[in-house]
Design a protein that fits this description.
Length: 165
Amino acid sequence: MQILENTSMSLVIYSRPLGLWLFTTALVLFGPITLLVNRDILMQEDGEFLLSLAPFIISWFAVAGWFFFKNMQTITSTFSKDTQLFIQQRQTLLGLRSKQYTLGEIEDILILGSDGEGIPINPIQVLLKSGEKIPVYLQLDFFKALPTATETASLLRQFLELDKD
């Protein structure tokens, strides 16, 4: 996660989560590599592959593939007081998606994982008045996820003037 711009009128947050990409790629490759390493154990006497593993293999690729396509993306979140817009752009393997919200729609900034249970992939989310939650950035950092999220949430609240006294 990087803050590309932080002025009195604009705040731009960009994420290109290399750690998450490496983890996702490893997850996809783990199943086939495990099968190849253990192929002697998995072969029957007549040399045919155990068909009972077919559902496991199909399930593994389905879940790992879904996780891969879901997380192979970059997010740019732009908060602009000039235009009064929050613009989020997601660049995925399948193309660019952009959504716009007015700054007036933003009710609060949420920090996920502050309860100590796990490391969230989307540590900060914008809560809209409609109840919709929009992730600000992606991150997989086991050592500084919560401190980074706390600092970023504080910066966002200050920029959007959402400080709760």
